[in-house]
Amino acid sequence: MADSRETNMVKAFVTGWPVKHSRSPLIHGHWLKQFGIAGEYRREPVTVDGFPAFVASLKSGSSSYVGGNVTIPHKELAFHLADEPDAIASDLGAANTLWLQKGRLHATNTDVYGFAANLDEQHAGWDTADRAVVLGAGGASRAVIRALRDRGIHEINVVNRTPARAQELADRFGRAVHAHPIEALAEVVSGAGLFVNTTSLGMDGGEVPEIDFSRMNSAALVTDIVYVPLKTPILAQAENQGLAIVDGLGMLLHQAVPGFEKWFGRRPLVDEELRNLVIADMDAEQ
Ligand code: ATR
User: Fold this and answer.
1) Which atom of ligand 1 sits closest to the CA of residue 207?
2) Which of 185, 248, 251, 254 has the most other CB atoms within 10 Å of its CB?
């Protein structure tokens, strides 16, 4: 059989360690089929030690990839090794999408776009909130903070178990961002218009703090970037208290759109069919 280089098939990848659980091949495979594009999107398991050589093979063209996605644990290194990281990747210090252009390796981070696009679709007007609370201060939290700041939310309160990590983000993202210890959660939630969970709290069977969401303002929204399960313990709590909720699956789907467009030249749609396909895959794994 001819390999993809001989047939000029456009090839993209997702790399991580491990990468076997990534749902990106399902998403991009669906779009390739939908458009009838003779392209390929495949998993590339690469260890941390092997990642620089993998990037070198991309840059030299020997791997014949046009670009791809990067997931844990390579996002920071991908940003550092890219020739042309954009402003978003630089702000976050991490990249999840790479592409070659005129022999240069470009990098961005589409989680910022994915987070906002999901809420735009599921809960238009979410960005009119004046005060937001972001629980967690890891890598995912950075993308959320950048999205909230881009949309002009005046006050972004980052609450974290380790206050120093929240302070680091406040220092990094400027005047709109304020750091708080987790003990201040109840007070910070009071009167807020948006609550975003970026932690895996409760997912390992551990305790989830009781949060009095009823103290948020009357039009408030609670969302989570974790999407397994779709209704996380924090979302379930908020829903029981009568708050509007949006799950995190749409962020995963929307963050894939800009990469597909760069590699394969068509802008795909996030629709119900795709969402159901991924949900069926999640169900099959349980
Ligand atoms: P990611 O890149 O996915 O955001 P991360 O960098 O490991 O992952 O960050 C995980 C976040 O979840 C952190 O804010 C972490 O709090 P710490 O900075 O104090 O570690 C938070 N987190 C994870 N488990 C938690 C728990 N049981 N209670 C409170 N916060 C937790």
Assistant:
1) 27
2) 251
160: CA distance to ligand 1 center in Å? 8
Atom 10 of ligand 1: nearest residue by CA position: 138
- Band of pLDDT at residue 5, cut at 50, 70 and 90: very low
Which tokens hold the place of 208?
Answer: 């989830």
Q: Which CATH number fits domain 4-109+251-285: 3.40.50.300, 1.20.1090.10, 3.40.50.10860, 3.40.50.1970?
A: 3.40.50.10860
How many angstroms separate the alpha carbon of residue 73 from the centre of ligand 1?
A: 15
Which residues form ligand 1's pocket by a CB distance below 6 Å?
136-141, 160-162, 165, 198-201, 206
CA angle 266/53/62 to nearest 5° reads 55
Average pLDDT, stretch 247-269? 98
pLDDT at 206: 75
Give the Cβ contact number of residue 227 at 10 Å.
Answer: 20
Instruction: Please state the rounded mean pLDDT for residues 103-124.
Output: 98
CB atoms within 10 A of CB 73: 13
CATH 3.40.50.720 residue ranges of the chain are 115-247
Give the ligand 1 atom nearest the CA of 140.
4
Closest atom of ligand 1 relative to the 139 alpha carbon: 2
> Is residue 201 scored above 50 in pLDDT?
yes
Q: Residue 70 Cα, ligand 1 centroid: separation in angstroms? A: 20
Which CATH architecture group holds 115-247?
3-Layer(aba) Sandwich (3.40)
Sheet strands (E) in the chain: 10-16, 39-45, 67-70, 84-85, 97-101, 104-108, 131-135, 155-160, 177-181, 194-197, 221-224, 244-246
Instruction: Note whether 194 and 188 are within 8 A (CB).
Output: no
pTM, whole model, 2 decimals? Answer: 0.95
Q: Is 231 a catalytic residue?
A: no
